[in-house]
Amino acid sequence: MEQTTSPRGVVQAGLAMTLVGTLTAVSAAISRYPVYGGQAVRYAVAALILLAVARLRERPGAAGGRPAGHGTGPGRPRTRLTLREWALITALAATGLAGFNICIVEGTRHTTPAMIGTVVGAVPVLLAVVAPLAERRRPAPRLVAAAVVVALGAAAANGLGGGSLTGLLLAVGALAGEMAFSLLALPLLPRLGPVRVSAYSAAAATPMLLAVGLLVDGTGVVRMPTPGEVAGFAYLAIVVTVGAFVLWYDALGRIGADRAGLFAGLIPVSAAVTTMALGLGTPSGAELAGSLLVGCGVAAGLGGGTASSASERPPVGPRRGSGDQQAAGEARADRGAGEEAGATVDRAASPRASTRPGVGSRQRSGDQQAAGEARADRGAGEEVGVAVDGAASRRVSGVVGEAGAGRGASEKTGATMDTRGRSGAAVTPPADQGQVRVGGAPCS
C-alpha cells in the first residue's frame, strides 16, 4: 500500500498512542499484582481475542470480506507462516513486548519514570531516520526536524528526572524495544495484516514473560485477581493491547513508520490528560508546554504531503517506458529483418526458376535444382525470421503488453503502406504509445 498522509492512518496512529498513554493511570489498579505474571495474563487474553477475530475474518462470506481464496482481505484462506516470519515474530515478541516491559519494570528500580519516559520519547526521531533507511530511501528533513520538536515536547512533559547508569542503560533498552515494535512488524504486515501480527506477537510474548516471572516471583507469578484488578487487566488487554496494537500496525502501512512515529509524542500528553480526568493529579506547566510542543511537531510533520517522494522510494524493479519500448522496437526490427530476408530470397528464386523455359531436360533439371535451392534458401530465410521473432518475443516477455501494442502499431503501419502502394493513399504514422509509469511506536 502506498504510504501517504492518509486521514485514516493519521487518525489511527493518533488514537493508538492516545490509548497507550492511558496505561499509566490505569496501571495503578493492578500495581499490587505480580508484574510479569500480570503482563503475561494481559497478552494471553489479548492473543485469544485477536486470534478469534482473525479466525472470523477467514470465514467465507465474512462481513465486508470476499469469498475464500480470493485476494488477501477478509475471507482469505488460513495463512501458513514461513520460517522467516516465525523468526521475525519471535524477535518482535522478545524485544518489542517482553523485552520492553522488562526494561521498564527493572529500570524503575534504578532510575525515575521521568528519565525512562524522556529516553523513550526519542522514538519519533529515530523512526524518522531509521525507517526510511530500512526502506532504502532518504530520510525527509522536514520529518526529522518535526520529530526533534516532538521529542523535546515529550521530554518537557516527562521531566528529565535522574538515576544511575544502570537505569539509563535500561531506559535505552526500552527505547530499542519501542523501535523494534514497529520496525520488525513492517515486513510482516503486507502478508499477515495487523490483526495476525498483533495476535502472534502477543501469543509469543506470553511464555517469555511467564518464564521471567517464575525467576523473579517463583510460584507467586500469578494469583487470583481482585475485582478491581480484573477490570484493570480487561482494559489493558482489550483497549491498550487489542485496540491500540491493531490501530498502530494498520497505520504503519498507511502513513509509514517515520510519519507514524510522530504520534509517539502523544503518550505523555495522554497520560497527563488521563491522570487529570481520573482526579489523580493536575498537569504542571512543564507538561502543558510539552504538550504544546508535541502538537506543533506533529502538525509540522504532517504538513509535508506524502510520506516519501517518488525519488525517495526504494527501487521497485527496472523502469518501464523508454527502456521497454526500446526492447520492443528492437524485437520488431529483428522480426522485420527476418521476414525481409525470406522475402528477398523468394524474389530471387522466381527468376532463376523461370528464365529458361523449353530448353531441354538437362536445362530443366538445372532449373529445377536452382528452384530447389531457392526454396531451401527461402525456407532458411523464413526460419531465420521465425527464430529471430521467437528470440525477440523472449526478450520482451516481461513487457508483453508494450511489445504487443508496438507490434500492433507496426502491423497497422505495414497495412497502411501496402494500401498506399496500390492506391497512392498517404501513410498515417502510428499514434504515440506514451510513457508507462511505475509506480514508533507504541509502548507495549
From TrEMBL:
<feature type="transmembrane region" description="Helical">
    <location>
        <begin position="167"/>
        <end position="186"/>
    </location>
</feature>
<keyword id="KW-1133">Transmembrane helix</keyword>
<feature type="compositionally biased region" description="Low complexity">
    <location>
        <begin position="383"/>
        <end position="400"/>
    </location>
</feature>
<dbReference type="InterPro" id="IPR037185">
    <property type="entry name" value="EmrE-like"/>
</dbReference>
<keyword id="KW-0812">Transmembrane</keyword>
<feature type="transmembrane region" description="Helical">
    <location>
        <begin position="36"/>
        <end position="56"/>
    </location>
</feature>
<feature type="transmembrane region" description="Helical">
    <location>
        <begin position="9"/>
        <end position="30"/>
    </location>
</feature>
<dbReference type="Pfam" id="PF00892">
    <property type="entry name" value="EamA"/>
</dbReference>
<feature type="transmembrane region" description="Helical">
    <location>
        <begin position="114"/>
        <end position="134"/>
    </location>
</feature>
<feature type="transmembrane region" description="Helical">
    <location>
        <begin position="198"/>
        <end position="218"/>
    </location>
</feature>
<feature type="domain" description="EamA">
    <location>
        <begin position="167"/>
        <end position="299"/>
    </location>
</feature>
<feature type="transmembrane region" description="Helical">
    <location>
        <begin position="86"/>
        <end position="108"/>
    </location>
</feature>
<keyword id="KW-0472">Membrane</keyword>
<dbReference type="InterPro" id="IPR000620">
    <property type="entry name" value="EamA_dom"/>
</dbReference>
<comment type="similarity">
    <text>Belongs to the EamA transporter family.</text>
</comment>
<protein>
    <recommendedName>
        <fullName>EamA domain-containing protein</fullName>
    </recommendedName>
</protein>
<dbReference type="InterPro" id="IPR050638">
    <property type="entry name" value="AA-Vitamin_Transporters"/>
</dbReference>
<feature type="transmembrane region" description="Helical">
    <location>
        <begin position="261"/>
        <end position="282"/>
    </location>
</feature>
<feature type="region of interest" description="Disordered">
    <location>
        <begin position="305"/>
        <end position="444"/>
    </location>
</feature>
<feature type="transmembrane region" description="Helical">
    <location>
        <begin position="143"/>
        <end position="161"/>
    </location>
</feature>
<feature type="transmembrane region" description="Helical">
    <location>
        <begin position="230"/>
        <end position="249"/>
    </location>
</feature>
<keyword id="KW-1003">Cell membrane</keyword>
